[in-house]
Amino acid sequence: MGKLINLKHMYVESSRRLSGLPKGVGRLRGLRILDRFVCGGGDDKETLELGDLGSFEHLQGTTLRIDGLGNVKDGREQAQKAQLEKKKYLLELILDFWSEPQEQQRISDEELLDALRPHPDLKSLKVWNYEGSTLVFGNWIMSLQHLTHLTLYEFEYCESLLPLGKLPYLEVLDIHWMGRVKKVGVEWLGIEETQTSPATATPTAIVFPKLKLLYFYGMRGWEEWEGVGDDCRVTIMPCLSSLEISNAPFLKQLPDFLQHNRPQLQLKMEDVHPSLLEDLARRGKAVSSIR
């Protein structure tokens, strides 16, 4: 493999059983497209480590998926060596933290995610199977000013969401299986509670200015979605056209900013609290099933 030094495109996405990339792949410095990078275990000397991604300086194309991040040892050091922040021609990045069960997995996931800092021109980010208790990539996600799609999938231990409302071009937000989140508060909008007061809010403030599609699935512990009050002067999700909520059996009400002046908003609900559906029916809101 290492003799193919002029190879430009390498596709391994279909190789589902792949547990790591051979060391020889690291000599293919001219690669332009590598659709999937599998992090080998720290004790496997025959496969590439996360830090070896730094050797591929010319990666571009639509998607790079990095698998096995939960197996990475010396996470911060390896993430820095990977130099994701220099890969400016990637459009989509998928970070999959799946791993074999191991002790202190949640701690290493947090350290690794904090150190994985993509290039600010990234358009789409998907994070899967993260086992940290906090979303520490809040330290860098606001630098992704061109991000249009964000997917968070299987965040078993997280209890709160990030303040994502200030991402200026975010169009699609897809959140799956955050079963420990009980409340989605105003901080998720990216505004402080004081900004919801008419005396302190900026008249031109807009949060989630481009968001069109919002999906929540598998929020088994979700009980409250906090509103901002009728006097709030902040504009929230002015472009939202579709809201889907599934598997959130304790959520009883939508926030006030989604209940008024939304004639074009399509609502799809499944396995939510009956009170939520009854409240929407009283307001004359049409609700369809996700199926």
From TrEMBL:
Domain R13L1/DRL21-like LRR repeat region: 51-178
UniProt xrefs under SUPFAM superfamilies: L domain-like
InterPro entries associated with the record: LRR_dom_sf, LRR_R13L1-DRL21
Protein name, as recorded: R13L1/DRL21-like LRR repeat region domain-containing protein
Species annotation: Rubus argutus
